[in-house]
From TrEMBL:
It comes from the Bacteria. Pfam families: PilN (PF05137). Residues 122-141 are annotated as: Disordered. This is Fimbrial assembly protein (PilN). InterPro entries: PilN. Residues 124-135 have a biased composition (Polar residues).
């Protein structure tokens, strides 16, 4: 019969020795992991710092491009506004020709006591008479004016006033006759005026 071995080492000491042994075994592993994590964190921080620096550089480089884009958008907006304004101006100039003519005639009537009775707008090409020698179609507008005045002298002054306005390239007296039954405005007349295409459409209050 073999004698049994009795372990007289206290249990607490045994456990402490096991803990120390486990600590010595795993300490290098944990230190390695901690070192790797620290290195990874430092590398990540370095990458983040580099990214911030790169982003800052890119922002500095892109800032002039943003300014150029904004300026281009502003210029495009101004260009579109100018184009619309020019188009409106052209349309208004075309549509204001009769209005400018009427204003000019009205201004010319005032100082001479001429009464305008009718105002008819015609195309210059449609008003030309091909059966007359030397007549030809011309671009532009004609207006036919019918009215009454005190005398032939007043009609002549009215024609001179219209010619002096510069809006018409020609002012022709087509007919004049007595106004039967009218004491003050004794003469009736008919004028044909051709609009001067190079003249401004803004009427003026006085003659040239």
């Amino acid at each position: 019969m073999t004698p049994s071995k009795v372990n007289l080492v206290p249990v607490a000491l045994v456990r402490r020795c096991e803990h120390v042994s486990q600590l010595r075994k795993w300490a290098p592993v944990w230190l390695g992991v901690a070192a790797l994590l620290t290195a990874a964190q430092l590398l990540l921080l370095s990458r983040i710092e580099d990214a911030h620096t790169t982003l800052s550089d890119l922002r500095q480089r892109v800032r002039p491009l943003h300014a150029l884009v904004e300026r281009t958008a502003t210029l495009e907006g101004k260009s579109a506004t100018l184009t619309r304004s020019i188009n409106r101006r052209l349309l208004l100039e075309q549509s204001d020709v009769p209005l400018a003519m009427l204003h000019t005639v009205a201004f010319a009537c005032q100082p001479h006591g001429v009464r305008l009775e009718s105002f008819r707008l015609e195309d210059a090409s449609s008003s030309a008479q091909p059966d007359q020698p030397g007549s030809r179609s011309a671009p532009g507008k004609h207006i036919v004016l019918k009215g009454s005045a005190e005398s032939d002298v007043t009609v002549s002054k009215f024609i001179s006033e219209l010619r002096g306005r510069g809006l018409f390239s020609s002012v022709l007296l087509e007919s004049t006759q007595d106004n039967a039954g009218a004491a003050a405005l004794a003469r009736t007349f008919q004028l044909r005026c051709e609009w001067n295409v190079s003249a401004p459409t803004t009427p003026t209050a006085g003659g040239r």
